[in-house]
Amino acid sequence: MRFPRLLVCLGAACLSAAAPAYAGPRIKDIVSVENVRSNQLVGYGLVVGLAGTGDRIRNSPFTEESMQAMLERMGVNIRGTQMRTENVAAVSITATLPPFARGGSTIDVQVSALGDASSLQGGTLIASVLRGLDGQIYAVAQGPVAVSGFKAQGAAASISRGVATSARISNGAIVEREVPYALSTAGSLKLALRNPDFTTAQRIGSAINRQFPGTAKVLDPATVEVTPAGAGGSLVELVSRIENLEIEVDQPAKIVINEASGTVVMTADVRISRVAVAQGGLTISVSETPEVSQPAPFSDGRTTVVPRTQVEVDDGQGRSLAMVGGTSLSQLVSGLNALGVSPRDLITILQAVKSAGALQAEIEVQ
């Protein structure tokens, strides 16, 4: 069996040179702290100052109602009049309120057209409130919008890039209400693993208890409870000291297959028992190369097109069995590469090996 030169060279380099020490991920990279989370905000508003690319009033009645209500609040009564402006667009406003955001701080907002506006380029968002799911007002947004896309058209052609009806306002909202949470007075705190695993949770608890004995307790494969009693300090100080501890993360053997794109991703613990694999298929190729047949000079014939059809059949002859398997991911990849198959053929091989009971891993098809 002949292995690809790249893998062989990599293997030789690993044998000849000492590999640098592996730095595992930090605790802060693999867990989420209880109640330290973002909150989604949503609002409704008007973008003004558009160069004729806004909503057509008759097609978007909610835009007209919003304009009338806004002008009435400013002391302008236009009830009963016919509005024809196309410089205004009704938009939805979304934002993410980060944890521990204080009053007066600013956050980014995303603005998206609701009506038939063709572009928000050059517009300005009028002051609009942003609410949480509890109905309370948490921020107020206003400012000029920044559109990354554009659209231009003429009588017979048009060109567009990106989405011109979606825009962003950097630091466009001011936080008016804080989400209350007193972390410093909490008696304990729970660390939630983003990828629950018994081994990883136990390693986190052991690493914390080695530094601060009696501080951590593993509740389940997704939760580690931390109390400051064994550390002799506040909970905030304890979390700041343990979140940089490095942990060796354990993960189950898994193969993720995306059949739409032909992508195969395998974790480091995937193993295949020694099996023999032969990959081949029947390929039939039909090609048409018609030729023109002309009669001899001064003859009473006609020029005709003569069909020429060529059929080729490849039944996979000449391909032999190959041994696939190994105790490490590099050996497994080398064995699969030796088959010389495409990624889509590799998907079929892995599924067949799983059916044969030789694949010790879970297969997830997306």
Automatic annotation (TrEMBL):
Pfam family, one: FlgI
Subcellular location(s) of the protein: Bacterial flagellum basal body
Chief location bin: other
Span of the signal peptide: 1-23
Record key words, sorted: Bacterial flagellum, Cell projection, Cilium, Flagellum, Periplasm, Signal
Coiled coil regions in record: none
InterPro entries: Flag_FlgI (IPR001782)
UniProt superkingdom: Bacteria
Quaternary structure note: The basal body constitutes a major portion of the flagellar organelle and consists of four rings (L,P,S, and M) mounted on a central rod.
Family recorded in the similarity comment: Belongs to the FlgI family.
HAMAP family: FlgI (MF_00416)
Annotated function: Assembles around the rod to form the L-ring and probably protects the motor/basal body from shearing forces during rotation.
Protein name, entry field: Flagellar P-ring protein
Organism: Novosphingobium rhizovicinum
Lineage: Bacteria, Pseudomonadati, Pseudomonadota, Alphaproteobacteria, Sphingomonadales
